[in-house]
Amino acid sequence: MTSLSPAAGTSPGNEDERRVIEAAKTDPRRFAELYEQNFDRVYAFVARRAGHRGEAEDVTAEVFHHALANLGRFEARGAPFAAWLLQIAKNVLTDRWRRGARERGDPAPEAGQPAVQAEAERRAMLAELVNRLPGDQQRVIRDRFVEQKTIREIARELARTEGAVKQLQFRALESLRAHMRDVHE
Amino acid sequence: MSEEAPIDRLAEALEAILADPGAPRPPADPEVVELLHIANDLRDLPRPAFKARLWADLLRSVTMTTATGQTMRETIEGVTPYLAVRPAAELVEFVKQAFGAEELLRTTGAGGGLHAEVRIGDSRVMIGGGGAWGGTPTPTGLHLYVPDADLVYGRALEAGGESLYAPVDQPYGDREAGVKDLAGNHWYIATHRLGGHVPAGLGTVTPFLHPHGAPALIAFLKEAFAAEEMETHRGPEGAIAHATIRVGRSVIELGEAHGEWGPMPTMFYVYVDDVDAWYRRALAAGALSVEVPALQPYGERRAAVRDAFDNHWYLAEPAASRGGTP
User: What is the reported pTM?
Assistant: First the structure.
């Protein structure tokens, strides 16, 4: 992915995306590009609403399986592809709630609401920015926040001092903040 | 170093957030607060291994479908009713006593409940659940053909069943009685009067569904599972009174819900040669995903979908050693 904005591929007027979707309808292997462009935002949308990581992964998997199976029904002149995926995600989540798989207070928000999409975009962008961090910062961010390891565990694995790991953590977050500000300004 | 203080303050605040994301946060300087917001969002980042694994699964699904799409029609082996109930062990005993079922398998399922398979005549039925199992029970209607409906009706009552209706000669030529077992399943116990005691094309046990909107369910079965409509009888007002639908080598009967015969959505185990292809096809036919295709610990590749009538369809590729079901 070269564009810093994951939203770049989602405009309904975007010819490239339209071409990829049409190609994927006849050759499902071309779905790879759509997956690559949309994975982060779908996961971000789902993770925010799922109870835990396992559920977020299950729902994300269902969304892409469903999208792949129903790609023939996607109408490129309608909503953008990303919005279609988020609508599927919303349906899967709502279905889970409805079936009482989990007790949860808030109903699933409308996937089509601009605020909801904007939030998914922002988080997808954050995921992309993490991919661009220097290797050691990226490692600390993933270990610390995704794997939820302690500073001590990470320090041991990286053969660094705890102070050094805290510093990497700080620099990584500072860098992410600076880039997020750039993007929003 | 001037950065030491914010670095430590941040590390401390992060410690608190990661330990308990819902806990009230102590006041911190605005610089740190902004970083904490980002940190909070980072907790929802995907694991790189998950992204790669999901793509591998999708790719497998794509490759298999492309390779086998042409021959799918012949490859549903059969449909087995799966009765998931709380009194699972008791139901196994009931079908043994009442219907002379043979117990083929009894094990612990993936969800910690009982999983059993029995053979009744020429048909296989799966029974699962138990007291510790937390799922939604799926008792349903089952058509059972026996040489002597009166005799089996009596045995079913002795075994603890409750009469739905006593043996009666039906206008369509069957001697038939109805019994509700202790788990809530309806057994329509019948003896066919023409030819053998089982009508041509049916087996000993055939699931019998009473959906609201039988034509839509038939359409789904055709689209999702390449089902064939063998016979359909309509009532005076045009509603489907009785339809016989072939799915693979198995048959499902159904009739529009009416009176006390309402929907009893259930579970089916469908053996197919290509789980991914049939799973995609079912989703394209309007089913919702319940389980994406995945290799089960007992060796089967399996997926599950739910139709609009709340029936669950487990699609499974038999493992090399058949019989390793959950």
Answer: 0.60
